[in-house]
Write a structure and sequence with these properties.
heterodimer; A: alpha+beta; SH3 type barrels; 6-stranded antiparallel sheet; 2 helices; about 40% strand; B: Rossmann fold; 4 domains; 7-stranded mixed sheet; two-stranded antiparallel ribbon; 10 strands; about 5% strand
Chain lengths: ~80, ~675
């Protein structure tokens, strides 16, 4: 089943299928940080005020906002 | 001729630690031309050969979108260092090698310094160095920079790479990284498109790849004509269709496939790895839903009370006495002894020493504050603070990283503006710098103390508190306004690594602190020196360059008289207030002493009863409040001004900042006075 990274709950894992959005700085930054097809992500936690979120990807901790997580398709 | 080695690596990979270890005290810190990104250089100590080490900014990639990344890649492409030392964090090979792949694409001489080997061992992981070397086709040297282990071997290997390179040894090729269809496109672009360009291409393989990737910076540099761009588009679309992703993603994906494979081959994880690391345990508390914010505030309060509380202010008093009494008296005696003219004595002692003293008193405090900031940064806490506070600041169009500068602003604007350096995005940094002066700093307190004692004796605390709140409200509204107008732009992405917690080395912290503090003294010093001399001059002479005895007769006095009507709609149109506000530029607390001089009260402090009585005849509670609001918001003091100039690195933005704050100050004071009058206050 396909979902976005934003919909994943704390402690849930998934494989990245696709990153949506136009070519440009934001998307490139995600790519450069290793958010690419096939990478496994684990949602670690949500910040105290509800945004951003912290995920574990490629063996390190990454934080991104829900607005960005919404463009990441997971299965 | 000396050799040049450049250090390249991800943020938090221990690059600066390695740089400090190699260069020791020879390092030199400046900015890269045109930007406020630090450039560090130093000579390699303990080497017979003359080697210059250049520390490039910490980066994850060589994309054209971030200033740091463009600087690093321009440096490598244009300055052609003899060897690029790529520092790779051994605990996170997969992501760190992504940058390595791009260095290989550049075709330069790369040597990999595999750092944090002590952490790898502690975790019980194994890295197969021989396989790593052969997969990358690069020399790999294991090191532990924080303990100085492996550094000598690294430099020896780098030297031999530099020597072999000179004899024409071939460097690894990008065929090993990318898949066949990408390589085919690169080769076609290289043979069919590049020859049609007017300028000669230095690095054809890399240039072809960048053109395929659609890199606008490279297109600009080469002045690629539209006809060729259309042909390039065809290559891009072919790959985009094949892989069903945009071209940048195709290339990035291909690089990551390579690094994932390499990491899989060379890293042998300890079988059981489900335990929480120490870093995870700390994080459980530090970014905990309930504890995170109280903990953050407690930490800030702690740093704040040490820096601006008893310890910090005792350093102010110490420097104040040292400069304004001990040194000033000594110099004065010496000048009198030498028979110097009275005006010269006053220029040197009153103008220059006094002016520089007003800045020097902040130095110990700034050093203390920067020490703590370095601790927060080097341990990895700063990233967590940004994570915790991001939501709140996003509403103002800022990111979580702006919170710390804002908070420091309540102590002193100077270090607050400097700490905005931790923001990578230039627009965010500018906006933060523009808002910081609205946080009511410590030097404004004497003004509040004087005026509230004179007019609001019964509820002093409430009135002072309301001024702090006023500053915050103005900052919030300004943030929203500026983000919609002159600092309009995309919301910078908040995609950030949360590095593992590390115990910083004392040496690292000291170097970090000293670099920043030294910069302040040097750069701010020159502007303050000039400003102090000019203000002294205006205060001391009249237009016929004769020394005056009455301040009203000086040039400054007459300037005050000229600009005083500007303040009439705010409720304080007398020339004394105008002059006091002008001298507030030297230091905000100077408003109090100037008011004293102009109202004929010698050695005035905020509790002088004579001065309070004098003010009560000139001001009403309403005009006093408008005056305090104006003092809070109008142009920051000279030291802050110099720092803003240095950090903005642009006269235009410095002028916009002080113009904006003074405009806002006028408007707010105007509204307070006029609306207050309408409501029947006096």
């Amino acid at each position: 089943m396909e979902r976005t990274l934003k919909e994943l709950k704390t402690g849930e894992k998934g494989l990245i299928v696709k990153v949506l959005g136009e070519k440009g700085p934001v998307k490139k930054r995600l790519m450069d940080m290793g958010v690419t097809r096939g990478a496994e992500v684990l949602v670690r936690k949500v910040a105290p005020l509800g945004d951003p979120i912290e995920v574990n990807i490629r063996g390190y901790e990454l934080t991104l906002r829900k607005a960005e997580a919404q463009n990441i398709i997971i299965e | 001729m000396s050799l040049k080695f450049a250090l390249v690596g991800n943020p938090n990979c221990g690059k600066t630690t390695l740089f400090n270890e190699i260069t020791g005290s020879t390092q030199y810190v400046a900015n890269w031309p045109g930007v406020t990104i630090e450039k560090r250089e130093g000579k390699a100590k303990r080497l017979k050969e003359d080697v210059l080490i250049i520390d490039l900014p910490g980066i994850y990639s060589l994309s054209p979108y971030s200033m740091e990344e463009v600087i690093a890649r321009d440096y490598i492409v244009n300055e052609m260092p003899d060897v690029v030392i790529n520092i790779v964090d051994g605990t996170n090979i997969e992501r760190n090698l992504y940058l390595t792949t791009q260095l290989i694409e550049l075709g330069v001489n790369v040597i990999v310094a595999l750092n944090m080997m002590d952490s790898v061992d502690a975790k019980g992981d194994k890295i197969d160095l021989a396989t790593l070397e052969s997969s990358l086709n690069l020399p790999v040297v294991p090191i532990t920079a924080s303990k100085g282990k492996g550094v000598k071997e690294l430099l020896d290997r780098a030297l031999s790479v530099a020597q072999t390179a000179a004899s024409g040894h071939s460097s690894p090729q990008l065929q090993e990284i990318h898949n066949k269809s990408i390589i085919a496109s690169i080769e076609e672009i290289e043979s069919r498109i590049l020859p049609e360009l007017e300028s000669e291409v230095q690095n054809p393989r890399w240039t072809a790849l960048k053109l395929l990737e659609g890199d606008e910076k490279v297109q600009e540099t080469l002045k690629v004509p539209v006809s060729l761009l259309i042909r390039l588009k065809a290559y891009q679309e072919r790959l985009e269709k094949n892989f069903d992703m945009d071209i940048e993603t195709v290339i990035a994906d291909s690089r990551y496939q390579f690094t994932t494979n390499v990491a899989r081959k060379v890293v042998k994880k300890k079988a059981d790895n489900s335990d929480l690391t120490i870093s995870d345990k700390i994080d459980k508390v530090v970014t905990n839903r309930i504890l995170a914010i109280p903990l953050f505030l407690a930490l800030m309060f702690g740093i704040f009370s040490i820096t601006f509380g008893t310890i910090g202010s005792s350093t102010i008093d110490f420097v104040d006495v040292l400069v304004n009494e001990t040194i000033a008296d000594f110099v004065l005696t010496a000048l009198e002894g030498a028979g110097a003219a009275v005006w010269l004595q006053d220029l040197i002692v009153g103008g220059i020493i006094g002016g520089l003293g007003s800045m020097l008193v902040f130095v110990p405090q700034i050093m203390i504050l920067f020490f703590f900031l370095s601790v927060l940064e080097d341990t990895g806490y700063m990233a967590r603070a940004a994570f915790v506070m991001d939501r709140l600041l996003r509403k103002l169009g800022l990111s979580g990283k702006s919170f710390i500068p804002m908070l420091i602003g309540f102590g002193c604007t100077v270090p607050a503006v400097m700490s905005a350096r931790t923001l990578e995005n230039e627009k965010d940094r500018r906006l933060t710098i523009m808002l910081v002066p609205f946080m009511s700093c410590g030097a404004r307190l004497p003004i509040y103390a004087l005026y509230t004692a004179a007019f609001f004796a019964r509820n002093q605390t409430v009135v002072v508190f309301s001024l702090y709140i006023l500053g915050i409200i103005v900052a919030i509204l300004s943030g929203i306004l500026l983000k919609k107008t002159i600092l309009k732009g995309e919301v910078a992405p908040f995609v950030m690594e949360l590095p593992p917690y590390r115990i910083p080395t004392l040496k690292g912290l000291m170097i970090h602190m000293w670099d920043r503090g030294k910069g302040f003294v040097k750069k701010a010093g020159t502007i303050i020196f000039a400003a102090a001399v000019i203000i002294w001059f205006l205060q001391y002479f009249n237009y016929s360059f004769q020394a005056v005895s009455e301040p009203a007769d000086s040039m400054l006095g007459s300037i005050g008289g000229v600009i005083a009507p500007l303040f009439a709609p705010l409720g304080f149109g007398d020339w004394q207030s105008a002059v006091a506000l002008l001298t507030g530029f030297i230091a905000k607390e100077a408003v109090v002493s100037t008011m004293g001089i102009l109202h004929g009260v010698a050695e005035a402090t905020e509790s002088s009863t004579d001065l309070i009585t004098a003010l009560q005849t000139v001001f009403t509670p309403l005009t006093a409040y408008a005056f305090m609001a104006f003092s809070l918001l109008y142009l920051p003091c000279m030291a802050a001004f110099a720092t803003i100039k240095r950090e903005m690195n642009s006269w235009k933005w410095t002028m916009i900042t002080i113009g904006y704050s003074t405009g806002v100050a006028w408007l707010v004071a105007f509204l307070i006075f006029q609306i207050g009058k309408l409501l029947g206050f006096s």
